[in-house]
Write a structure and sequence with these properties.
By secondary structure, the protein is of the alpha+beta class. The chain has two helices and three strands; from the N terminus they run H-E-E-E-H. The radius of gyration is 30 Å and the shape is elongated.
């Protein structure tokens, strides 16, 4: 799980390190803004994109939160599994199984 978290954070940081231009133009038909990675008109405005890069502390906090949630999920699964398993007091081994419908009971 830690590898996946570290990989996700690493990819997030790498993807934000490249520079990409975003252009804003007005649609001549509607007048509404259009955003594109390529200039959409001769008067296209280059938009500056602000990319959030988490601090190392934010990364550590996120990893701690993910680990905590993972433990809670595992504990919940274990409790659910334990509650679904019949206890030995409920099904003693020396008691014959109940008769099945359509079959006569054994005597």
């Amino acid at each position: 799980m830690k590898r996946m978290s570290a990989l996700a954070v690493g990819l997030f940081m790498v993807s934000g390190s490249g520079w990409a231009a975003m252009y804003k133009c007005d649609d001549p038909a509607t007048g509404r803004p259009i955003y594109s990675q390529t200039p959409c008109a001769p008067d296209a405005q280059v938009m500056e994109l602000k990319i959030h890069r988490p601090t190392p502390e934010q990364v550590r906090q996120h990893e701690a939160q993910v680990e905590s949630e993972r433990r809670l999920i595992e504990e919940s699964r274990a409790r659910r599994k334990a509650s679904q398993e019949p206890s030995q007091s409920q099904t003693p081994r020396d008691t014959p199984p109940p008769p099945q419908p359509g079959k006569p009971a054994e005597s």
